[in-house]
Here is the input.
Amino acid sequence: MVKSKNSAPLSATDFTPLEEKSTTSRRGPSPVILLTTAFTLFAMAVMLFLFAARAVIFRLDPNSATVDLDGLAFHIGDNYLLLKGQHQVRAQAPGYYPLAQTIEVSGDTTQEIEMTLQPLPGNLLVRSSLDDIQVRIDDQDAGRVPGTLEEISRGAHKLEFSKYRYFNLRQQIEIEGLGKTQAIDIALQPAWGQMAFTTTPAGADLFIDDRLIGQTPISAEVLETGSQLTLKAPGYKTLKKQVTVKAGSQAQHPLIEMIVADGQVVISSTPAGASITLDQQFQGTTPLTIDVSPFSQHRIELFLEGYLKASRSLSVKPEQQTNLAVDLQPNIGSVRFNITPADATILVDGKAYGSGSQTLSLNAKPHSISVTKSGYETKSMTVTPRPGHQQALNIDLLTLQQAYWASRPPLIKTSLGKRLKLFQPNEQFMLGAPRRQPGRRANEAERAVRLERPFYLATHETTNAEFKTWKDQHSSTAIKGQTLDMPDQPVARVSWQEAALFCNWLSRKEGLPAFYIVEQARVTGVNWDAHGYRLPTEAEWAWAAKIDQQSRSQIFPWNNDLYPPQQVSGNYADESANGFLAFTLANYNDQYPVSAVVGSFPANSKGLFDMDGNVAEWVNDFFDIRPNRGDAELDPHGPEQGTRYVIRGASWALASRTELRLSYRDSGTDGRIDLGFRIARYVDKPGATL
Here is the structure.
């Protein structure tokens, strides 16, 4: 014990000894156990992979290609063990484009995957002693060589080499590809020979294929395939021709005699457009530049309609230009224009020459003549004056209205074949009959009427065949065994309403505006502005029937005699109908006991048939009795309202002198066996359709 200086003596204390440490240390798992465990786990993983994996065989073209796969894979022989699902595969080989694709591993059987790699193109090194050679591969431009042609696809190719003045070279080549460069040597063969040229005169400039070689006499290279030769010399015509010579040979071209060059003549005329002949050969029209052979006299002539011929003689030098200007002298003729109206204006070729009649001196050529005046139709024509002979033209202008009506066709035809004749009365007459006329009835009071509106009127009565086109069940019936229903007989037993409705039907059929206003299948009014088919007005019918071509009024169809003539003039109640008619004409036999075929008897002076006789006819007007008011009625069309309609004309059933008069009028609404109709229509106004 070591004691400390000046310290108190130590005393005993309680003491508990520490636990004794063990001399044996703790240790982890042994390496053997760890290795065994790891191997076991690896084996289990391998077993699981083998259990889940599927075999895949890759068929590669080329066979030297290798495969890289993503993820876990085992390569056993030709097989690759891969887990199910998608895998990225990349195949590659030297000289080929790499190939990458996605495959799907599935199923329980071995899959085979084919992968074909595309070879890389090859290169071709072309060697030649010549430069700037054009090359084509498979007929496609590939550039120029010598040099390397890159990226040529693998396989057989057609090569063509060309160069000016050398023969083309063609050959086949097999390109290996795979990124390799092949080499070939080519030698093009010259395609030219030598040819010597001489000319008269010497010293002409020689061009071969537009390249100046020199002056003749001279030798030049000429292609076997042909070269363009050009020779030029002052004062001589340029000569061009194709020449050829065998390659590698020498030849002498025959002497070439140069032709003296033409001179030129620049020809103009006043006025322009004159025809030109050179030595009687047509050249063209002025202004014109023509070539003329030198050192000779030539005759140039100019011709222009309406002008005198001009002739000139001249000579030119080689390559000399001569100007020839000619003032043509007019060839005059005289034309007298007699113009009506006197203040109408004359235009000649669009130029105004004043108004009224006058004599004009004009060039002897066709002129466009127009005579015009406001409110009148312009008249145009072509006139060619004749020198030495005065011509006279009488030109009468029509007002626009006159011209329009004059242009209307004199005869039209319906779609059923019915002909209608144009009438333009423009005259006044007395409708009705004078009081002292034998047989006159009280409903025939005379009154003055004037017709101005042009109209068409059928030349024949409407037939059964025509009417049945609209109403096929209609029958005109028969009487005492005598039929009224043959196709060409006039239709009968037709009411006024039926006749009017037939007119409207025919208008619609031909695209014309309907004349009659129809409500609930009945006519309730008319449209006087329409030019569709209609029944004639009473005034139109009377004028057409009894006013002759000399504007004289007739009493009977035959004349003013009280008795019918011995010759048959119409179909009336005659002796042939004695068996079933109470009254007949004595000593008159028209051979038809009932109605006749329309047009069987002569037409009246206006070319209209059966205007009196055969069947009586409906007209458009309501029936009334009007006294003469003094002033003439213009284009009358009867009262606006009424209960009955006017019937005009005699028939096959009537025989009294009262009934046979052309002024005889009756009335009604319903049809009867001796009553029919004919159609009419107004002339269309400007802009309408016939």
User: Anything to note?
Assistant: The chain has a mean pLDDT of 89. The longest strand covers residues 332-340. The domain at 44-116 is CATH 2.60.40 (Immunoglobulin-like). The chain has six helices and 52 strands.
